[in-house]
Write a structure and sequence with these properties.
mainly alpha; 5 helices
């Protein structure tokens, strides 16, 4: 990967992290203002929770981009890598959609029951995204199994499985038998 793209993804990741910190600050400010003034404290708290959920999702996306594009420094050549990255990203989005729809359901159910339809549809969208992710996992399972691992990966796996020194005892902690209990008589 070129230095420019690493730098670009680093800037994007930190910008997303900064935006999530600002969102959390706004959520805390609005919630505290609602409590100090006493006007709609519960509504401002629910709004704050919604902003924090969005902030966490934005921070997770920034972290995901930084880990995948800067730290890992790989180009997704293998199906298993792409499958893992897509699963991680979609999991972030599904959790954020689910939590946001729960907050919206709690908020709208207090006002008018007719407005619960829209958050309910958002929850349905999260469930459909989860079902789609499961279907993707099932369908792509055969694609990742069909591609043989690289020669270098086989050698690395074998080196990790071998013990460091032959004949030396394992460093695993062994459980010692408990001493017999003293007779109370």
């Amino acid at each position: 990967m070129t230095l420019f793209s690493r730098l670009l993804y680093t800037i994007i990741s930190f910008a997303l992290l900064g935006a999530s910190i600002v969102l959390i600050g706004v959520a805390v400010w609005r919630t505290s203002q609602g409590f100090w003034t006493g006007e709609g404290a519960l509504d401002t708290m629910l709004d704050g929770i919604g902003l924090v959920i969005i902030a966490v999702a934005v921070a997770d996306v920034g972290k995901f981009l930084f880990e995948e594009e800067v730290v890992a420094d790989r180009e997704m050549r293998r199906p298993a890598e792409a499958r893992g990255s897509l699963t991680k990203f979609m999991s972030i989005m599904i959790v954020a959609l689910s939590l946001e729809s729960l907050v919206l359901i709690a908020k709208t159910s207090r006002e008018t029951m007719g407005d619960v339809v829209y958050p309910g549809l958002l929850m349905l969208l999260a469930v459909l995204a989860l079902v789609g992710l499961g279907l993707f996992q099932k369908l792509s399972q055969h694609a990742t199994a069909a591609v043989p691992p690289d020669k270098d990966e086989d050698e690395n796996d074998e080196a990790e499985k071998r013990p460091l020194a032959i004949g030396k005892p394992s460093t695993r902690s062994r459980r010692r038998p408990a001493a017999p209990a003293a007779d109370p008589a």
